[in-house]
Write a structure and sequence with these properties.
single chain; alpha/beta; seven-stranded mixed β-sheet; three-stranded antiparallel β-sheet; 14 strands; 40% helix
């Protein structure tokens, strides 16, 4: 997701008016009860309940609670919670990919049932009072296990086959839900639709895609959720990733490949209504670059992706950043990227969590495998159809909403196919050069 930076002029006003799902004013809302989180507190609203009911996910919370009631010890709780988290992820992926019952009339491609069902499960786990007693740290560990399992973060299974290209893709939860609890995130929908699927490169090689979804919460990122998920797949080995793409929702009507990512958190409230304004904190214990750089860059084949015909939306090589120039005191917009020695105030993806996941992933790449192709892709904004824009009286879905979400997912698939094709071509070129060099050395 991208926070739009303030611009000057009438064009900016028009853009902001068109991008209703990216409004910058967080509406005043009532505090959640003490025994639930802010996100869990939204479950009582009409829209989440309808989304759960119309997808068949409305029984997930109740069934999970019944299972917890039968648990008799902490070890059993750990196994049960981990299994149920992974089962929820697999159920959402299966539904999105057309396997099993649809559970209702809500479109299968919808990412929202997973989000709201997970919150029902975390609410049950947070309020659970077992007879054997549960410390705060034990409950926290169970919640963490449930989060990771139900987001696909601990089930990324890249094949060891050397003839298969391995791609890791990440998406996000819905966000800005205080303004409209009906919202969907096309990056999360794409993650569900693509997990475990295979595409063919231009030269015919298979490329396997494995996905995970991340929360829209500053605290989770500071705690290392991105690095913990990606590091095992960035390290060299038989199952190492050959390509990665972090994805989030961006601007109306277009895809953006973000050229540069900045080390700055701009403070816009997250799904927990928390705000952080600071340099992106790197968790202890993970490989990183020292001193911490202000900027990282994409290594996706952006020129080829932009030139390719991947779908109905234009794809832009987005180079703009906001910086404090070396020796300067205030932020300056730079259309062509940062200048030497500058301090980051917004990457191409802004100063919110989409910029941050791009920064963290590419910083980890630079520390572990600098040659690994990867970067960030912003999707178009997913909007409701005409006549269905009022969250107070609108429907939770409509034909335009579904059509555009499916179109975005299919274009994401096409963009990944182009990136995979270029990765294979670059690898073949490098191998041919190495062979030629070796032959020359023997002469």
């Amino acid at each position: 997701m991208r926070r739009i930076r303030t611009r000057r002029g009438a064009l900016v006003v028009a853009l902001l008016a068109a991008a209703t799902p990216l409004c910058l004013t967080a509406p005043a809302t009532a505090a959640a009860p003490a025994d639930v989180t802010v996100e869990e507190g939204r479950l009582t609203q009409t829209a989440p309940q309808e989304i759960l009911r119309r997808s068949g996910f409305d029984a997930v919370e109740r069934e999970f609670g019944h299972g917890l009631a039968r648990v008799t010890g902490y070890g059993e709780a750990r196994r049960y919670v981990a299994g149920e988290g992974r089962a929820l992820w697999r159920r959402a992926v299966d539904r999105a990919q057309g396997r099993g019952p649809d559970g209702g009339d809500l479109s299968r491609d919808d990412d929202r049932p997973l989000y709201w069902a997970r919150l029902g499960m975390t609410r049950q786990l947070r309020q659970w009072q077992p007879d054997f007693g549960l410390t705060a740290s034990e409950r926290g560990a169970l919640l963490g296990s449930l989060e990771r399992g139900s987001r696909g973060q601990d089930s990324v299974e890249l094949p060891a086959d050397p003839d298969v290209l391995r791609i890791v893709v990440t998406g996000f939860d819905p966000f800005q839900l205080d303004a409209d609890a009906r919202r969907s995130n096309p990056s999360g929908a794409a993650a569900l639709a693509l997990d475990g699927t295979t595409v063919r490169t231009a030269s015919g090689e298979p490329a396997r895609i494995e996905t995970a979804v991340f929360p829209v919460r500053w605290a989770d990122f500071a705690d290392g959720t991105v690095e913990r998920t990606l590091l095992p797949h960035f390290r060299s080995g038989p199952r190492q990733a050959d390509l990665f793409t972090t994805i989030s929702q961006g601007r109306p009507g277009r895809f953006d490949i973000e050229r540069t990512n900045g080390a700055w958190r701009g403070g816009y409230p997250d799904n927990a209504r928390e705000s952080r304004t600071e340099t992106v904190p790197i968790p202890a214990g993970v490989p990183t670059v020292r001193p911490q750089p202000q900027w990282t860059t994409t290594s996706l084949p952006y020129a080829r992706i932009v030139a390719a015909r991947t779908g109905p939306f234009p794809v832009v090589d987005h180079t703009e950043v906001t910086e404090i120039p070396a020796g300067g005191t205030g932020p300056v917009d730079r259309p062509d990227g940062p200048t030497p020695g500058s301090t980051a105030r917004a990457g191409g993806g802004g100063d919110y969590l989409s910029n941050e996941i791009a920064y963290r992933a590419t910083l980890l790449r630079d520390a572990v495998r600098p040659a690994l192709p990867g970067g960030h892709l912003h999707t178009p904004v997913l909007e409701f159809g005409p006549g269905n824009t009022d969250p107070a009286h609108g429907q939770v879905t409509d034909p335009d909403f579904v059509h555009h979400r499916i179109a975005i997912t299919e274009q994401v698939r096409a963009i990944l196919t182009v990136a995979a094709s270029e990765t294979v071509a670059a690898s073949e070129t490098a191998a041919a050069s190495e062979t030629a060099a070796a032959r020359g050395a023997r002469r």
